[in-house]
Design brief:
single chain, alpha+beta, 3 domains, 12-stranded mixed sheet, 19 helices, HET, Heterokaryon incompatibility domain-containing protein
Length: 717
């Protein structure tokens, strides 16, 4: 049943966008040009986030009103959208919104040549400059039915991923991938425990048994057994209580066999897929790590590069939100809408409308693989980022499709094969010995943690352990010391990460996290200190070529446990070098600070600073704070900071750095900004760099900075 308003959302093929074409067999269909937009007369004024009018109409029997409301409120993407002031729109209350419906026909998917049909619900806030669209995929109600042929609709997708055709496709992709001999961490690695899925009841098999079975098979040397690894989300603390686990006391029982009633849905589906792929073993953390043994947990955290790197394939349960939820059944809500042709009067029927995704760009539909592999909730869960990056190959079971990904290429089930890497991968780093390239690869790893906050973990202190497998992998190649996400031989560049213009943490919150943390996770100078909008050092093109300008710099961390890349008790950075306190020198005076970008609510964190030299000349540099500061407070705040010189670079045309002779006035300083935290200790609050772009005046030079500074020892926590 459709209400009167929803009847206005019906697709009409008498739109000027459609024309009738007849193929060589005499079959006619209604077609459009590429990227056609077909409006409808649907309009509704409602209030976000409750959308009471849609709710009431749905309760009155309109299925489409209920579907639209669910599409808006249940989309993973909507929860990430923000208003112009950085407030998540899901936290807004009683905001008036308008809703419209249109069709995107024969529309190009972002970064592909694929064309799809969409019904789009456009949501616009009346009093706030923000809007978004819900893209709902249109499919045939029945394969080959007259409406599907007339509108050239994609077939209705199967609701399960366990069909022979899908499993055959996965096997074929694995077979093709193994021909490329991807670099593996350790050719003879055998996990401590694996789940044997070959029998009627799955059971745990230990390391020694696995080695014995290899020798029984007559292998001349130990080889990694074939196994899958599962990447999934445990869920809430309540969900985790029902998850099947291995402890010291239950180990012998798990070796004897696991009863069907003990197996949670996500584990059950992983076992089914592993069996169907004819792979004998499965690795899953809840069973293959002793959950009551911190030593075993620490040791295996540092082996994640081997565990996921050697898995024949990683099964990614992207559509599952907890261990209570399986992933091999597609659960995309959908609704049938009627269709009555105007161009062909005798033709009528229906089509499926599948709940889609939210996007701020109304004209940019996203691909299924992006939505399932990069934009799903699982993609931003702390532990799963490392699992994705370390896996040699993955099969992603998402809401919209199944997708195969390996370092050589990627493919969605039923779609074209694309040669080239999907998003980020550390596999290229395994084939290089160039130290600078390895540092750049590590920087790309940290980019993946931009959206990983403390709320992405059951325990906030899991942050460092969650990337310890990757750190262990890089440490073997770099032969370098590791400090809370940073490498000893790349400290100066590594410390120059910055927060971008969208960062909104207040100064009080920032200092509170350093001076009185609820749980200690990482020091203030670590790029992992803030989640969200942080930029890696190599995003700053001004510092690509630089000279160190610090007398001594030393990082220290105190580990907690046996994993040298894992949880730490504390960390500090000791620097001996030139420090500047602008209020304590007569060489230069601080004059003004202007936001580099339009401030939000009168606050900003990226500034153009102007100093005045004693001869009256204006000198400029840029400041990027780790928190947002009201414009009216900036002049007083500057008095509380120290500027620590780390390095210097020489600028060429248009502000680009270049390596030339080091002569004072031509060299420009960069370094850390710190604020007093505790007695004799400081915390990082930002960075300063040469001014970028055009301005009236001169750059702050290294020579002037050194003349105005003093040489001292600073400890940053």
């Amino acid at each position: 049943m459709l209400c009167e308003n929803c009847q206005q959302s019906a697709l009409s093929d008498d739109s000027s966008a459609f024309r009738v074409e007849t193929d060589e067999f005499g079959h006619s269909s209604a077609v459009t040009d590429e990227d056609s937009i077909i409006p409808t007369d649907y309009f509704l004024l409602d209030h976000f986030p409750e959308l009471p009018k849609l709710r009431e109409s749905g309760h009155g029997g309109c299925e489409f009103c209920s579907f639209i409301r669910e599409s808006i409120l249940s989309s993973d993407n909507v929860s990430r959208l923000q208003d112009p002031y950085g407030v998540r729109i899901t936290s807004l209350s009683e905001e008036e919104v308008t809703l419209r419906v249109r069709y995107l026909w024969n529309y190009t998917i972002a970064d592909t040549d694929i064309k799809r049909h969409f019904l789009q619900v456009i949501v616009k806030f009346v009093n706030i400059d923000i809007g978004f669209g819900i893209f709902c995929r249109i499919r045939a109600a029945e394969k080959g039915d007259p409406v599907a042929q007339w509108l050239r609709l994609d077939d209705s997708s199967t609701q399960a991923f366990t069909g022979a055709k899908t499993i055959g496709w996965i096997k074929e992709r694995i077979h093709e991938c193994t021909k490329h001999n991807h670099e593996l961490p350790s050719p003879e690695f055998i996990p401590s425990l694996l789940l044997d899925v070959r029998g009627k009841s799955p059971k745990l098999t230990d390391h020694d048994t696995l080695i014995s079975s290899r020798k029984t098979l007559g292998q001349l040397k130990v080889q990694t057994p074939r196994y899958t690894a599962l990447s999934y989300c445990w869920g809430t603390a309540e969900d985790a209580k029902v998850q099947l686990k291995t402890t010291k006391s239950s180990f012998s029982k798990r070796q004897a066999g696991i009863e069907p009633h003990e197996i949670t849905p996500v584990l059950q589906d992983a076992i089914i897929i592993t069996k169907q792929l004819s792979i004998p073993y499965l690795w899953i953390d809840c069973l293959c790590i002793f959950q009551d043994d911190i030593t075993d947990w620490d040791r295996q955290c540092a082996e994640m590069d081997k565990i996921y790197g050697h898995a024949e394939i990683t099964i990614v349960a992207a559509s599952s939100t907890s261990c209570r939820e399986g992933f091999i059944q597609r659960r995309v809500p959908r609704i049938k809408l009627p269709f009555y042709s105007t161009l062909n009067r005798i033709l009528h029927g229906s089509m499926w409308i599948e709940l889609g995704f939210a996007g701020e760009n109304l004209n940019l539909p996203l691909s299924d693989i992006y939505l399932d592999a990069a934009a799903s909730r699982l993609a931003t869960r702390g532990w799963t980022v490392q699992e994705r990056l370390l896996s040699t190959r993955q099969i992603v079971f998402g809401k919209f499709n199944a997708h195969f990904i390996c370092p050589w290429g990627y493919q969605s089930n039923g779609g074209p094969l694309t040669v080239g890497k999907w998003l980020n991968s550390i596999h290229s780093a395994r084939t290089t010995s160039d130290v600078q390239e390895l540092f750049r690869a590590w920087s790309r790893v940290l980019i993946e943690y931009r959206d990983i906050g403390e709320d992405s973990f059951t325990h906030a202190t899991d942050l460092l352990p969650s990337l310890s497998g990757m750190a262990a992998d890089f440490a073997k190649r770099l032969k370098d010391d590791y400090f809370a996400g940073h490498w000893g031989n790349d400290l100066i560049m590594g410390l120059m990460w910055s927060s971008d213009s969208g960062f909104k943490i207040s100064k009080s919150v920032h200092l509170g996290r350093v001076c009185a943390p609820l749980q200690y996770v990482v020091p203030s100078w670590s790029q992992l200190f803030h989640s969200g909008l942080t930029n890696p050092p190599d995003a700053n093109s001004l510092l690509q070529l630089f000279y160190p300008a610090v007398e001594c710099i030393e990082a220290r961390t105190s580990i907690s446990g046996s994993n040298v890349f894992g949880t730490i008790k504390n960390g500090e950075l000791r620097v001996r070098g030139h420090t500047l306190s602008p209020q304590a020198t007569s060489v230069i005076q601080f004059k003004s600070a202007e936001p580099l970008f339009p401030p939000r609510s009168g606050q900003g964190n990226e500034w153009r600073f102007r100093f005045e030299r004693s001869d009256g000349e204006s000198l400029f540099c840029d400041v990027r704070l780790d928190f947002s500061l009201p414009i009216i407070e900036i002049h007083e705040e500057v008095k509380l900071w120290k500027w620590i010189l780390l390095g210097t670079c020489k600028l060429g045309p248009f502000g680009k750095s270049r390596r030339l002779e080091k002569t004072g006035e031509d060299m420009h300083p960069f370094g850390l900004l710190v604020h007093s935290c505790r007695r004799s200790e400081w915390c990082r609050i930002g960075v300063f760099v040469p001014a970028w772009g055009s301005f009236q005046g001169s750059q702050l030079s290294l020579q002037t900075f050194q003349m105005a500074s003093t040489l001292e020892d600073i400890t940053i926590i």
